[in-house]
Amino acid sequence: MAGGQRQRGRSGRPAGLRRETPATLDRTLSAVAGGFSGPDQAADDESRRLVGSAVKKTGRPARRQATKERYVARQTSRTKQSDRARREDLELGFEPDPGADWRHFEELKLSPFLEAALEEFGAHGYHGGSVRAIANRVGVTLPTLYYHHGSKQDLLVTLLMGSMHDILVRCRHALTEAGDRPEDQVAHIVECFTLYMAHRRRLAFLDGEVRNLEPENRERYIAQRNELSVMVRRIVDDGIKDGVFHTPYPAEAVRAVVSMCQAVAVWYRPQGPLSEAEVAQRYVTLALDALVLRTRGT
């Protein structure tokens, strides 16, 4: 063909290109919109109606306007539903405040997204796991997963912060139940912490992924994690003043007790010879021995 120019038909379009009719344009937009599901479906239906109506009335200029309206409709729908989505995301599957029943653990039922992320991170680690693999475990598309959780980092943060929040809430209730005696307070905190590590091993094991948190997220998580150590250290200091604990190394003793409890998540198996409660009671004894407990009046 001379000059390398493509042959054009009577309409001025290059030969071989399909003419977009209102019907084919509507089908094309419907196919694109079909790639999304969930909260945006109403916006998709409304935008397709706008496109079809405008195309039939006025042709190409209206198609551009209708496409713009379609985009606005989708964004408006997302904005209107953002508050509802945040409320729904609060239902992540973590247990509600256990109150005085801090020793009791129900079966963990996370949201499908968090359960899949927990399985993926447990099997392959944070870096080895992929968002696509998590979506496949749930049986959803990537856009659907990203609608609920903006990134793989978001999934890890939600799991870690949710777990730490649960530990702290339970430990505060245990501390309230213990009364005023430092030895009882230490016993209750160690029992509570050990029970959590045994019952929630999969979640607790994620603590090893803290190194993969982004700086701001890592700072928030470590601040909460340190709250538990500060809680125990304050009790130990009170016990030393009262003459109940006699360890010459309170800081090291507290660090040893907390680390000992955390390690339960690594080795404990419910099929083993000890129940969660039995392990917790043994760890209470070990913790009090580490603090050199002396019986009152001796």
From TrEMBL:
Organism of provenance: Streptomyces ferrugineus
The entry's DNA-binding region: 130-149
Residue intervals passing through the bilayer: none
InterPro entries noted in UniProt: Homeodomain-like_sf, HTH-type_TetR-like_transc_reg, HTH_TetR, KstR2_TetR_C, Tet_transcr_reg_TetR-rel_C_sf
UniProt keyword terms in alphabetical order: DNA-binding
Xref: PANTHER family: HTH-TYPE TRANSCRIPTIONAL REGULATOR RUTR, TRANSCRIPTIONAL REPRESSOR MCE3R
Protein's name in the database: TetR family transcriptional regulator
GO molecular function: DNA-binding transcription factor activity; transcription cis-regulatory region binding
